[in-house]
Write a structure and sequence with these properties.
The chain has a seven-stranded parallel beta sheet with strand order 8-7-6-9-10-11-12, with helices on both faces. The chain has a five-stranded parallel beta sheet with strand order 2-1-3-4-5. The chain contains twelve helices and twelve strands. It is of the alpha/beta class and 326 residues long. 35% of the residues lie in helices and 14% in strands. It starts with a strand and ends in a 15-residue tail after the last helix. α5 crosses α7. It folds into two domains: 129 residues, 3-Layer(aba) Sandwich (Rossmann fold), CATH 3.40.50.720; 182 residues, NAD(P)-binding Rossmann-like Domain (Rossmann fold). The protein binds glyoxylic acid (2 copies). The site of one glyoxylic acid (GLV) has 7 residues, from loops. GO terms for molecular function: glyoxylate reductase (NADPH) activity; hydroxypyruvate reductase [NAD(P)H] activity; NAD binding. Belongs to the D-isomer specific 2-hydroxyacid dehydrogenase family. This is Glycerate dehydrogenase. Keywords: Oxidoreductase.
């Protein structure tokens, strides 16, 4: 009997074909709608592998419902949607896709930074709404990017790729990370500092940390109050790293200048979310890695992780490599 793979969302055709050549595939055939929990719990009963993504929760109930599961892989670098401890307890490898999305996500982070600093979405609305009367000295004036100080919280691969872009804009680069990264300091001229100093000194505060219990609500009222009034906050990591109410207050009361957000505490956010009332907020719907080329690579890598898991081989990138005993 062929192994069954459950795919929780419609994925690019080449990745689907790769899997169909080797297994029976159930795919939730929607690009936007989430698979209902009861459908997922039903389909995984005889599944050998699950191909998932950022928004579909692979929790304890899913593991309980799938006694034959041998591999889980997510089409993402972040894996906070998966109960990894539960997978590890059952000896099931969990795969993810670091590396292939680094530069693309750094591009989005920098675009959000620039769009927020120079108020591009507001300017676009201004023109479309017929409000453009003439050239005007202080019309839609924003903040300079070049030569400013950028503070990167979380100097992983993506943080480094953002720093490389910042270097091209002659920015001073500060970073905060769990551990110091001497090679990133030497290569990029970045300077390590404590979070408090980073917040006090930076014109741009970029949150790049993964979602863990240590980073939950890392940015709260106190942190926003330390930032400069002219400073801009960018988050392309996870919404749970931020106290959204504190962020809203800081923006509303102009205690910080603006924010660019690709991620939210609850996704999707509703159109009546208070943050969307504010002109000094630029938003995107969690599209950090969304280039055609990169999303295709991520899907192929996830498929490869699944196939390796089914063959009992080590995945290309395993989150819980302790299951292999090293
Ligand atoms: C997307 O957010 C990812 O973790 O890849
Ligand atoms: C992601 O690849 C990171 O390590 O930042």
């Amino acid at each position: 009997m062929k192994d069954k793979i459950v795919i929780t969302r419609k994925i690019p055709q080449p990745a689907l074909e790769l899997l169909q050549a080797r297994a029976e595939v159930y795919m939730w055939d929607s690009e936007e709608e989430q698979i209902p929990q009861d459908v997922l719990l039903g389909e995984v009963q005889d599944a050998a592998a699950i191909f998932t993504n950022v928004s579909d929760s692979i929790n304890r109930a899913v593991f309980d419902a799938s006694p034959f599961l041998r591999a889980v892989a997510t089409m993402a670098v972040g894996y906070d949607n998966i109960d990894v401890a539960e997978a590890t307890r059952r000896g099931i490898p969990v795969g993810h896709t670091p590396g292939v999305l680094t530069e693309t996500t750094a591009d989005l982070t920098f675009s959000l930074l620039m769009a927020t600093a120079r108020r591009i979405p507001e300017a676009d609305r201004f023109v479309r709404e017929g409000r453009w009367k003439s050239w005007s000295p202080m019309l839609l004036t924003g903040q300079d990017v070049w030569g400013a100080t950028i503070g990167i919280i979380g100097m992983g691969r993506i943080g480094e790729a953002v720093a490389r872009r910042a270097k091209g804009f002659d920015m001073s680069i500060l970073y905060h990370n769990r551990s110091r990264r001497p090679e990133a300091e030497a290569k990029l001229g970045s300077r390590y500092c404590e979070l408090e100093e980073l917040l006090l000194e930076s014109d741009y505060v970029i949150l790049m940390a993964p979602a863990t219990k240590d980073t939950r609500r890392l940015m709260g009222e106190r942190e926003f109050s330390l930032m400069k009034r002219s400073a801009i906050f960018i988050n392309t990591s996870r919404g749970t790293n931020v106290d959204e109410e504190a962020l809203y207050k800081a923006l509303k009361e102009k205690r910080i200048w603006a924010a660019g957000l690709d991620v939210f505490q609850t996704e999707p956010i509703s159109t009546d979310h208070p943050l969307l009332e504010l002109d000094n907020v630029v938003v995107a719907p969690h599209i950090g890695s969304a280039s055609i080329a990169t999303r295709t690579k991520m899907a192929m890598m996830t498929a490869e992780n699944i196939l390796r898991g089914l063959s009992g081989d080590r995945l290309l990138h395993t989150v819980n490599s302790e299951i292999y005993g090293r």
